[in-house]
Structures are given as structure tokens and as C-alpha cells.
Specification:
alpha+beta; 5-stranded mixed β-sheet; 30% helix; 230 residues; FHA_dom; 7 helices
Length: 230
């Protein structure tokens, strides 16, 4: 399976740009700006701190995002690992893998950081140690994910494990056809899952893709489940 950092590339050029960032072997942030353009920001070990916010003076400026605070969050390198902190600077909070950030948190390869309406993927090529912050045990232990929701997620994620470049999740109708669940129920459940992951403000097509990617990265859906028909 290809790297999660290259999944969701919209064009061959984007795929190549992401692969080049991976080949450099240094941590980076991957996100889209207000016009939908791909942005890749390398994280240098020489930087004491990397600020994120709506102000142009921020190291990573998000002027297009009305829900991002002027100074929203800060990344810093601690003992060789990148961490993120939101010390109450933001009005709407900072979210990591759908969980609201409280204080400082270590970032792991594949983590999704939500600031305002912007989703930033943290990538650390070649990193060793724990995986994404939200792991399978956390998800399987929570009753919020019903058996029906897990069936829907598996069907949604199935294209992720198919051969070929790029990734588009199954449509609501395709999920309904595979699971036998009414398409209106599928839509409602996926909207609920998006809210649980903190992605409700994204446009629906992008929201579906992020829900699917997060489900795979967190371990809720694995290749053995997503790669075969249920």
C-alpha cells in the first residue's frame, strides 16, 4: 500500500510533490489553502517554534480561514519529537485526530491537526516509535462507533486498498449497495462520523475522504477488512 501521505493526491504533479517530500526524509505538514491548492511546509530542526494562525506574520499563515485565530497554535521540537500546543490562544480550539487538544501533545506520523476549517496532515518519514495518536484501542473501546457505523466505514474505505494511484472513497450510494443499508441512513451516519472527527465544516466530498483516511490511519479499518467484499 502506498504511503498515507500520497493518498488523496488530485493530480500526478501533487503526487510527485508529496513523494519528493517523503524522499527528503524530513517531517513536514501537508494541507490545502483557501483555493484548494496543495501546500507542503517542511519542519526544520533549526526552528525553535513554528506558529500557526490567521495572521500573515505566523510561520504558517491561514488568512483564508475565518475560524482560525490570529495566533492559534504552535509547533515545537522537544527531545527530537514535534509537539503541538494550544494554550488557550484559539477561540475554536485545536483538534488532533478528532480529539480536542488540551495543553501540549506529541505528534506522530499520520496525525491530522484541525485548526479552524483547515486540516493539516503531519508526516514524519522514517520515524520510529508509536503511530498516530488515535490508535485502534481508543476507537474500539468507545461505544460511539456502532456495528453499523463500522460496516459503513469499511465500505467507504474500500477503494483505499485497491490498486492504482490516488484515492476517492466510495460514494454514499456505493456504500448503501454494498452494506444493504438505506442510502439516507448512510449519509446521516457519515455526517455524524464527520462531526465526531471534528470535520463537519469541510465540504462533503472532502469530508468523506478525510473520514476514510482517518479511519485507516487510526486502525479502525485495516487492509484485511477494506480489501475484500463483506
Amino acid at each position: 500500500m502506498e504511503s498515507h501521505a500520497t493518498l488523496g493526491s488530485k493530480t500526478p504533479e501533487e503526487h510527485e510533490e508529496r513523494q519528493a517530500a517523503l524522499d527528503r526524509g524530513e517531517p513536514f505538514l501537508l494541507f490545502r489553502d483557501g483555493d484548494g491548492r496543495q501546500r507542503i511546509v517542511p519542519l526544520s530542526e533549526d526552528a525553535d517554534a513554528v506558529t500557526i494562525g490567521r495572521r500573515f506574520e505566523a510561520d504558517i499563515s491561514l488568512p483564508w480561514d475565518p475560524e482560525a485565530s490570529r495566533l492559534h497554535a504552535e509547533l515545537s521540537l522537544r527531545a527530537g519529537e514535534w509537539t503541538i500546543v494550544d494554550d488557550g490562544w484559539s477561540q475554536n480550539g485545536t483538534w488532533v485526530n478528532g480529539l480536542r487538544l488540551a495543553g501540549r501533545r506529541r505528534l506522530a506520523d499520520g496525525d491530522l491537526v484541525k485548526i479552524g476549517r483547515t486540516i493539516l496532515g503531519f508526516h514524519a518519514p522514517g520515524a520510529t516509535g508509536p503511530g498516530p495518536t488515535m490508535v485502534q484501542g481508543e476507537l474500539s473501546a468507545t461505544p460511539r462507533f456502532s456495528e453499523q457505523q463500522q460496516r459503513i466505514l469499511k465500505a467507504l474505505c474500500r477503494p483505499l486498498f485497491a490498486d492504482g494511484d490516488g484515492f476517492n472513497p466510495s460514494s454514499d450510494l456505493e456504500v448503501a449497495d454494498e452494506t444493504g443499508i438505506n442510502v439516507d441512513v448512510v449519509t446521516q451516519e457519515l455526517d455524524l462520523l464527520a462531526r465526531l472527527f471534528g470535520l463537519e465544516d469541510m465540504p462533503r466530498p472532502e469530508r468523506r475522504a478525510e473520514v476514510a483516511l482517518l479511519a485507516v490511519r487510526s486502525g479502525l479499518v485495516g487492509a484485511d477488512e477494506g480489501g475484500t467484499q463483506g
